[in-house]
Amino acid sequence: MKLFQIRTQPLGVERIKEFVEDNYICIGYTGVGDLENAGREDIRERLALARAAGGPELEAVLDNLDIFIHGMHDGDYVLIADEEWAYLGDLGDYFYVEAFDSPEDGRCHRRGVTWLRSVPLSELNPLLASWMSAGAVISQYTGALPGARLELWLTGSAAEGRSTGHRAAQVDEQTLAEALAVLKAALYSGDAERRERAAIAILQYAK
What we know:
The chain is an alpha+beta fold.
């Protein structure tokens, strides 16, 4: 599982409302055709032929397209944000829409997205907020990620509570150890729902 962020202004046009409502994202580079089966060098040649960029700029465009086409995979996650909200989505496969491959539009290179959760930007995990504010067109998060239920990890409140030494209730170490042992045993239950609840509880404690 990987997490990516992508800017929401392909070709300078804000598309976040459309992304959220129509369940997709796009990256905005035009004139290079369908890239589903194109390797990195093939993409480079197409960009050069399309005169989309040259020199360092071409390499930057190539890197962005390479992440979008080859770095992202079905089942990975993506974050987008406006001035008030961040949206977490489950990524689908890449697809190309020729009708939108024009300098006036630019919505041709797409991935479907199932949006899972929205979070006020002010409550977003500080590590994620800092990463997203860097301004890259597209990038992969390189920090530690939870093993499951990423949508429960988006806010930094639990981590902040731990760093200041406060908990909602004080529990002695022995009771805590016994409770964790019960949760660990539940991870191997034959009941899938019970396993999932146990995993969520352990992840929440670990924050």
